[in-house]
Amino acid sequence: MGRSTIDEQALVELLFERKEEGFRQLMRYYKDELVNFAYRFVGSYDDAVDVAQETFIRVYRFIETFQRGARLRTWLYAIARNVALSMLDERKRHGTLPMVEKDDEGEEHEREVPDLTYVPDRAVDSTIIAQRIQEALMRLPAVFREAVILRDIEGLTYEEIAEVCNVELGTVKSRINRGRTMLQELLRDLYEELYGSKQQ
């Protein structure tokens, strides 16, 4: 059953009533896309599953803080993003982020090494090229990576991304444009590596 069939308002009411069916529906509708988002962001399938699970736990614990009338999906992504960022911070504290990159303005951002043992969307991502795309995504600084993922992979609107990331709309547009430019440059280099010539 796809997202288009969801009655979010009815689902929210079930969640507020703490009905078991509500949480079953929540996980059935949103687990795959949250795992996919988290995988693209943190680069590890096991960690992505943990992010999704922790997101659902926080929904259960804090559903009373959800504002009726807001988009449930946007709220879920905001929670998942915060969980993922905490996970990346934890990796950094434990020395599992071995690389730091500087952006064009000289600011340092952590760079994560992706786990390519799992690739979602198997019909497409089973190819080497798709793995390289994920690797390139993981080389983007987190603020640009999340913006590109949320817009170009998860399909959120600019307004939804601004809400998820708690930033101004102009910042969202700037990060998406910057992230796309950086990703295109990375993929141009990867294309040359794979095929021996520059992408035209």
CATH architecture heading: Orthogonal Bundle
Mean pLDDT score: 83
Major sheet details? 2 strands, antiparallel
Number of helices: 9
The strand count comes to 2
Please give a handful of descriptors for the protein shown.
single chain, 200 residues, mainly alpha, Rna Polymerase Sigma Factor, Chain: A, two-stranded antiparallel ribbon, 9 helices, 2 strands, 68% helix
Structural notes for this entry:
- This protein has 200 residues and is mainly alpha-helical.
- It has a single domain (3-195), classed as Rna Polymerase Sigma Factor, Chain: A, CATH 1.10.1740.
- It has helices spanning 8-16, 20-42, 45-62, 72-93, 122-125, 128-139, 142-153, 158-165, 169-195, and strands spanning 99-102, 108-111.
- Helix 2 (20-42) runs antiparallel to helix 3, helix 7 (142-153) crosses helix 9 (169-195) and helix 8 packs across helix 9 (169-195).
